[in-house]
Amino acid sequence: MTSARFYRQRAGLLAAMVLTGIATAVAGEIAPADRKSGYDFMSAQARAMQDDDTANPGMLSVLDGEASWNKKAGAAQKSCADCHGDATTSMQGVAARYPAYDAAHGRPITLPQRINLCRSENQKATPFPAENAEWLALSAFVGQQSRGMPITPPDDSRLAATLEKGRALYFLRQGQLNLSCAQCHDDNWQQKLSGNPIQQGQATGYPVYRLEWQGMGSLERRLRNCMFGVRAEPFAYGSEQHLALALYLRARAAGLKIETPAVRP
Amino acid sequence: MMSRALVHVPKTATQGGVIAIKTLISHPMETGYRHGDTGARIPRNIINRFTCTYNGEEVFRADLHPAVAANPYITFHTVATETGVLAFTWVADDGETHTELANITVD
Asked: What domain range is B34 assigned to?
């Protein structure tokens, strides 16, 4: 990040702190009727880019993911398709209900984690490292099978403890700027930060193609970006904090449509 | 690095009609101005030329420069003259070339 951009961002965040101080809105969660995807905050050009599969660069990753889906891997020499068959039917709706509780491991897991567990346990292959292009591609391909479907968090009591932890993290003030996620994304989403709209932070299209990254990235990468922005120490890739936040964000986005692979500025 | 390209050409067109063509290719478009984790400069590797031929005749060409973002999206129009093949070629600094073909029926 260039220093000019860093200072601009810092100035913006300080402005946000001032805004927070004078905001009269009652702090709290966004009502289902007011929920908006990041798509609704984008420019017409960026929306057109996401809507057109020939222009959406995330589709390049989806195509890579489709190739990986059919490719044999690991000591077991099995492909995803060998067990799961045609992804357009078997993976339909899966992204809309993850993160879900995994009984075999006794903990909730995200969809990318599910893919990596399948890879290490069933394909007997080396698990993908964080932000690996093939992992993002497989996640994008599986996610795309649920595009347009509403997010429906499973009604599972075994998720409750982690969900509560995620909610607590979301409302926890962090970093040198001492800001919580909620202070921007719940209380001030109609405002602007450095001239850009503050979005609601609805995780509807991950993995996303972010123009700033000029590539695909996971929800974890995006969360780490925000943590850096408030000058907090980012949570580690694969950490339970990220899992808890992902679970809470999914509950918070219930009813919004899956957009994978989304384009974001 | 150029592994994947998406090309959209109408399957059919009327003679003399203007058709829109859309192309997207995966490429990092490394500018040559960045430095890696060790401080060493990352050598420039961009797609520097894109051409489209229609039954062998060049109808569109573009020179690309380091300011173009990764995964360049190029869209343009041409006149549908005859049934045939549109060939799209991307050439990168490292000498790699990627070609995609698309058929069009003109009546």
From this structure: 5-106
ipTM over 0.85: yes
| Angle in degrees, CA B87, B91, B92, rounded to 5 | 155
Overall number of domains in chain B: 1
Q: How confident is the model at residue A22 (pLDDT cuts 50, 70, 90)?
A: very low
Nearest residue to B89 (alpha-carbon basis) of B69, B70, B64, B65: B64
- In CATH, what class is A3-52+151-264? mainly alpha
Task: Give burial (CB, 10 Å; 0-12/13-18/19+) of B26.
Answer: buried
Fold of A58-144: Cytochrome Bc1 Complex; Chain D, domain 2 (1.10.760)
Could you write out the DSSP letters of every residue in A112-153? HHHHHHHHHHTS--PPPPTT-HHHHHHHHHHHHTTTTPBP--
Query: What contacts A81, CB < 8 A, 6 or more positions away?
Result: A69, A70, A87
Q: Is A255 left (phi over 0), alpha (psi -120 to 50) or beta?
A: left
Domain CATH code at residue B54: 2.60.40.10
Instruction: List residues in chain B touching A: CB distance below 8 A.
Output: 3-4, 6-8, 22-26, 28-29, 69-71, 73, 75
Instruction: Output the pTM of the full model.
Output: 0.87
pLDDT tens-digit readout, B80-91: 999 999 999 999
Contact yes or no for A54 and B4 at CB 8 A: no
Active site residue A226: yes
Residues of B in contact with A214 (CB under 8 A): 28-29, 69-71
User: Taking CB atoms and an 8 Å limit, are B22 and A53 in contact across chains?
Assistant: no
**CB within 8 Å of chain B, chain A residues 34-53:** 49, 52-53
Average pLDDT over residues B92-105: 94
**A-B interface: how many C-beta pairs under 8 angstroms?**
37
